[in-house]
Design goal:
The complex is a heterodimer of chains A (763) and B (110).
Chain A lengths: L9 E3 L4 E6 L12 E7 L2 E7 L12 H4 L1 H5 L9 E2 L11 E2 L2 H19 L4 E5 L5 H13 L4 E2 L9 H10 L6 E2 L19 E5 L3 H4 L8 H7 L3 E5 L12 E3 L6 H14 L5 H7 E2 L1 H8 L4 H8 L3 H13 L3 E5 L9 H14 L9 E2 L14 H7 L5 H4 L9 H4 L7 H9 L7 E5 L12 H8 L4 E6 L4 H6 L2 E4 L8 E3 L11 E3 L11 H12 L1 H4 L5 H9 L6 H6 L32 E2 L3 H5 L22 H6 L2 E5 L15 H6 L4 E4 L1 H7 L6 E5 L4 E8 L7 E4 L44 E7 L9
Helix pairs in contact in A: 3-20, 4-14, 4-20, 5-13, 8-11, 8-12, 8-13, 11-12
Chain B lengths: L3 E6 L8 H10 L8 E10 L5 E9 L7 H5 L5 H5 L5 E5 H10 L3 E4 L2
Antiparallel strand pairs in B: 1-4, 1-5, 2-3
Classes of the chains: A alpha/beta (763), B alpha+beta (110).
Chain lengths: 763, 110
Amino acid sequence: MQEQEGYEWKTVTDDETIIRTHAWSPPGCHPVGCGLQLHVKDGKIVKVEGDPTHPITRGALCPRCLALKEFIYHPDRVLHPMKRAREDRGKDKWEQITWDEAYDIIEENAKRIIKDYGEESIMVFGGTGRQANTYYPLMAFMVFGSPNACYAQSGWSCYGPRATITAHLMGGGYPEIDNACRYPDRYDHPGWEPPKYILLWGKEPLKSNPDGFWGHSVIDLMKRGTKLICVDPRVHWLATRAEQIVQLRPGSDTALALAMLNHIVENDLYDHDFVDRWCYGFEEFAERMKQYPPSWAAPICGVPEEQIIDVATKFATFKHCALGWGLAVDQNPNGVQLAQALLSLLAITGNLDVPGGCTLGTPIAGDDDPARDMANWGFAAGVLKPEVWEKRLGAKEYPGFSTIMNQCHPDFTLAAMQNGDYKCRMAYFHSSNVVSGAIAAQPDKWYEALKDVDFAVAQEPFMNPTAMALADVFLPLTTFAEHDGHVQPHYGLNAAFEAAINKAVTVGDCKCDIEIMIDLGKRMHPEFWNQFDGVVDYLEKRVIPKGMTFDEFRKAGVIQPEEVYRKYEKGMLRPDGQVGFLTTTGRFELYSLAFELFGEDPLPYFEEPPFTPQNKDLDPKILEEYPLILTTGARTYVSFHSEHRQIPSLRAMVPDPLLEMNPVDAEKLGIKDGDWVLIENQFGKCRQRAQVTPTIQPGVVHAMHAWWYPEKDPEAPSLFGAYDSNINTLLPNGYIGKLGFGDTFKANLCKVTKDETNEKEEA
Amino acid sequence: MENYALFVDYEYCSGCKSCELACRNEHDFKPDQWGIRVLEDKPWQLDDGSWEWNYIPLPTKLCDFCKDKIARGEEPSCVMHCQAKVIEFGTYEELLPLLEKKPMGYIVRP
C-alpha cells in the first residue's frame, strides 16, 4: 500500500478553502476517482479544478466534472424531501416535507407491507455505475430484509456477465488493461512495459471510463508505443488512430473471436507453458475450435479472412498484449460465449496478469465490496432471513447467474410481475430511472408492470421520469461534493487505488446513500443499525482500510496497492493460499465445469443473435419490414446515460439524440444530416436526429441511448418526453442466453423514415 | 506573454472539449464566451482506407495563457485539464523542438 506523499486534503487561504477530493457520484459516473480541487468560498463552490498530484488523472477532468457547479447549483435540483398522494402519481403535485416525515411514511408502509405480504414483496431497483451500485443491494438485504435487488436491464447485461464469466472460468477479479495504475511513478516504473497491442472489443474507453478505468490512459499508452486493434461496427475517433479497424457486423462478435482462437490453436501460436501449467481442458477446447476457421467467420462477420488471421497472429505473437472488452460482450445473448472466448484468448496467449497484458484484481477494500456476497452480511445482521432469500426471483431458474450475482433476475422478474406470479408491493428506486433511462429494455413495459405498486420511493438529485411517474416519496441525494465517502475503481474487482471522497459543501437538506441507509436501517432494524453513529463511523467500521480513521484515510490521498503480476503462481488468487486459479480444477478452465453444471455447453460456440439479417429462424417478413441493423448505446463525453441532460454547458455540446447512418442509406431514404427521423420496429418506435456519417457501415444505424427531456412536460403521459426518443422502446426483454445473460441492445433491426410531423424543433 | 505559445499534438486530441470548460471555469467567462474552442475536421476516408478525423483546439482573443496561474507556478487551465495531455505551454524555443519531433502538431499563438 502506497500513500500519496505530501498530500493535503484541505488548504485554507485568506479568502477560500480548497478541498481535494476524488469523484464518484452523483452526478453519475463509474468509480473512476478522478482527482479534484473544489474551491469553496462562503460555503459555496466557486471553482472546480483538477488535481495535478493525482497519479492517474494528473490534473485532467472530463467535461462532466468541469460542469459540476452547474449540476450542484442547478435551479431544478430537488433540495428537500417531498411526498405526493398515491392518486397523484404522474402529476407534478409534490409537497415539501421533513426527513422525519419521509422516514415515518417509508417505515410505516414498509412494515405494513412486510407484515401483510413478506419482505420479498419489496423490490429495490438500482441503476448503473453510481455509488448506489454498492448501496442498493444493501438497502434490500440489510434494511428491508428483501432478497430482491433489481438491476432492470434484460439479461443483467452490463459488467455482471463479464464479471460472472470471469468468476466461473478462473475465479474473481476482473482482467483490465495494464496502464501502470498501481505505481506512484506510473509509466516510468522499472519493469513495467506498455502493451504491444490493445484489442479494444466493443469499447470506446475515452468517453466511458469503463468501470473506473481512466479511459484516456489508452492515449498515454499509444504515446508510449502501444498499437490498437479496434473491433467495432462503428469507426469511432479512437479507431481512426488504430492500426487495425475490424468493422464487424453487429452481433457477429463471437464468430470473430472463435476464428481468432482457431487460427492461434491450428497454427500453434499459443503459449504452451501457460496452457500446460495453468489451463484445464485444452484438448477438448482445441477440438472444438477446429469448427471455426477464419474462412468460416469472414462472411458471418463481414470481415476479410486475412484481417482475422492478421489480428489473431499479432495478438498471439507480440508480448504482451491487452484486451479491453466492452459492453458489447454483455449485450448479446451469445455474449457469455464471447466472454468465454475472449478470456480463453487472453489465457492461451499468456497475457493474463503480466506486464503490458491484462492485470487481475484482488479485492482490496473493506466489507462493502460487491465481490463478496452481500447477502451473507444480511444474514449475519439478522435482517435477511435465509428462508426469504430462497424467494429471490429467478435464482433457481438461472443458477449460473445467481451463484455469482446477488440480484434477482431482471427478465424473470418482469415476466413474473406481468403474469401475476409476483406482486411488487413496494418499489424503491435507488438511483434508477427504470421507466425511461439507459438500462431497461422496453422501459414502458416496466412502467406498466409497476404502475399499481402500493408504495414507491425515489432517491435522486433531480426529478426524473421514474420518480414523476411512480414515487410517493422523493428523497433528495447529495452530490459527491456534499458527502464523505470512499471510491475504488472497478468496485474493488481490479482497483488501481482507493481514496476518500471529501465533503466540501452543504446544499439544501440532501443526504447521501450511506446516511439514508443508516437512518432507514435504524427505523427498520435498530438492533443492527444502532451500532453506526453516522456516515464516517460507518465508513470506518465497514468500508475504508481496517485500522484507519477516516481522517487518516483522507490525509493519505490516493492509496495504491502493490502491483503483483502472475498471482496464480504465488497463491494469491485463492483463499486457501494454493497456487492456481479459484476454480474446481485450480486451473483456468478452457472447458468449463461450472458451465456444464449449469446446463450450458462447457465450450464456447457461435449462435446467431435473434434479430439479425443472418438469422435463418427469423420470419423473413420482419427483415423485409425492418431492413436496417440497429446498434445502440455508444457514449458521449457529456452525459452519463440518462443523467446530465439538464446541464446547460453539456447539453449545448450534444443538444439532441443522434442516429448515425451511412450516406448511402440516407440518400436512399431521402434523409439529410440533421433531419428528425422515426426509428421503428415490431417492439416500438422513437424519434432522433439523423447524423449522416461514413463512420458507420451501410445497412447499419447506431442510436444514442437514454434520452429524455428535462425541459418537456413533466406530467404523465409525457413524463419529460420519456418515450419520445428512448431507443430502448425498440429493444425487447426476454432474449437472453442459457445462463440468463445478454440482450439485443447491440444488434436488432429497425426501419428509419424521415419524420414528417414537422414538429417545431428546439430553437 | 509575447514570447509564449501553445503546442498542440492534434494526433491525439480526442475532442472531449474539457479545455473549453476548464478555460471558462478559470476565467469565469459567460456561457457564450470562450478562451479556446475545439474545431472539428469531420471524418472522411482516404483512398487507401485510412481515416482523417481531427480536432483542432484554437485559442481565442480571450486567451491570456492563464497568466495568474502561470504566476503561481501552475499550468494554464487547458493544459492541466486536457485528458489526452496534448497541449503544451512554453516559449517558441521550448516548443519548436516538439514540432520538429512530432508530426500532426502545430504551434499557435492567440
